[in-house]
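step=encode ok
step=design start
structure_in=
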């Protein structure tokens, strides 16, 4: 059965052009499409296989504004909440707290490097679900860091540029 098979995609590595491009918005006509659902599924499988806590479509060579945020406790963030993976289409950070926090980040596209990055502690984000429903949520701490890291990918920015 097809749904039992996972699709692992190649991950673009630092220095590749796709990672420095601003990704295009997902069009209304693409919402709730088989193409978009398949992309999200493959992104999720690829992220999981590499033990990532987030992924952005440009990392799998699709220059579209789609990210997945999937916080879970890990050695660097033992208090990180375990959350179901959230797929965000056309995410927009509407508000950022003035308070920032330093925290270690890594990236599937920069496997050989980690670094301390200052990020807003709390953010409000608006996004569309795969079906096109609009959601607004507030995230704080590690999940907020993931959202900011992944939205940066959509704007062609890697965390190493923020160190
Ligand atoms: Zn990354």
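sequence_out=
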């Amino acid at each position: 059965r097809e749904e039992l098979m996972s699709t692992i995609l190649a991950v673009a590595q630092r220095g590749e052009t796709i990672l420095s491009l601003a990704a295009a918005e997902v069009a209304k006509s693409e919402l709730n499409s088989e193409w978009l659902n398949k992309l999200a599924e493959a992104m999720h499988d690829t992220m999981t296989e590499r033990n990532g806590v987030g992924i952005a479509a440009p990392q799998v060579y699709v220059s579209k504004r789609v990210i997945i945020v999937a916080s879970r406790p890990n050695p660097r963030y033992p208090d990180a909440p375990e959350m179901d993976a959230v797929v965000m289409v056309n995410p927009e950070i509407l508000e950022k707290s003035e308070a920032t926090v330093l925290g270690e980040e890594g990236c599937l596209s920069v496997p050989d490097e980690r670094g301390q990055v200052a990020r807003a502690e709390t953010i409000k984000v608006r996004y569309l679900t795969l079906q096109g429903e609009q959601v607004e949520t507030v995230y704080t701490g590690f999940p907020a860091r993931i959202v900011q890291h992944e939205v940066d990918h959509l704007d062609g920015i890697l965390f190493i540029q923020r160190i």
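step=design ok
step=annotate ok -> Residues 105 and 120 are 14 Å apart (CA to CA).
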